[in-house]
Amino acid sequence: MPRQLVLMRHAQAAPAAFGDIGPQADFNRVLTPHGRDSARAQGAWLRARAFAPQLVLVSPARRTVETLAALGSFYGDQKPDIRYVNELYEATAETVRDMLYAISDKTSNIMVLGHNPALGALVFDWGARHCPPPLEEAMQRGFPPASIACFTAEKPWNSATDHEIRLNALSCQ
């Protein structure tokens, strides 16, 4: 059975409060009402796909933590190992890829909840290699807030090459 990987960008967040500047202001941005609604809808989409991650890697930024909460319990009876990973906050695509290389080959189904440009770059890199024709139009729209890209691989995530990772679903809110 193929291994599954879901990359999700946090839902729409409000700008930092007026006069609140600096890295901490961005880190503490909250979801907008639209962002919460989008995340709930994406949780329903994941439930409909019966995606059940064993591991969820989440940026500790407030908007990603709130996105995870708004998704609801999409993972069924088996609660995944949820890890808040500081490196996801300002990650590059390579940082995220390195995180996958570090995961045990016993972990088949993974979700990464983080930020652009890292996640969008991975989605476009992997998706452009093997994009199913029905997803081409969605790929051209970018990777906006609350977007989800689903990938599969036959090999463990720590040994699958970029050419062996295949896009099989995309949901952009």
Alpha-beta classification:
alpha/beta
Biggest sheet descriptor? 6 strands, mixed
Number of strands: 6
Count of discrete alpha- or pi-helical segments spanning 4 or more residues: 6
Please report which band the strand proportion falls in: under 5%, 5-15%, 15-25%, 25-35%, 35-45% or over 45%: 15-25%
The helix/strand order is: EHHEHEHEHHEE
* Helical proportion, percent range: 25-40%
Q: Strand order across the biggest sheet?
A: 3-2-4-1-5-6
Which consecutive residue ranges, at least 5 long each, have pLDDT under 50? Answer: none
Mean pLDDT: 89
**Quaternary status:** single chain
Question: How far is it from the N-terminal to the C-terminal residue, by CA?
Answer: 29 Å
Rg from alpha-carbon coordinates:
15 Å
The outline comes out as: globular
Could you describe the 3D structure shown?
With 173 residues, the chain is of the alpha/beta class. The chain is built from six helices and six strands. The chain has helices spanning 23-27, 33-48, 62-71, 93-101, 118-129, 136-140, and strands at residues 3-9, 55-58, 81-84, 109-114, 148-153, 166-171.
Tags for this model:
globular; six-stranded mixed sheet; 173 residues; 6 strands; 33% helix; single chain
Write the layout of secondary structure elements.
Layout: E1 3-9, H1 23-27, H2 33-48, E2 55-58, H3 62-71, E3 81-84, H4 93-101, E4 109-114, H5 118-129, H6 136-140, E5 148-153, E6 166-171
Parallel strand pairs: 1-4, 2-3, 2-4
Antiparallel strand pairs: 1-5, 5-6
Helix pairs in contact: 2-3, 4-5
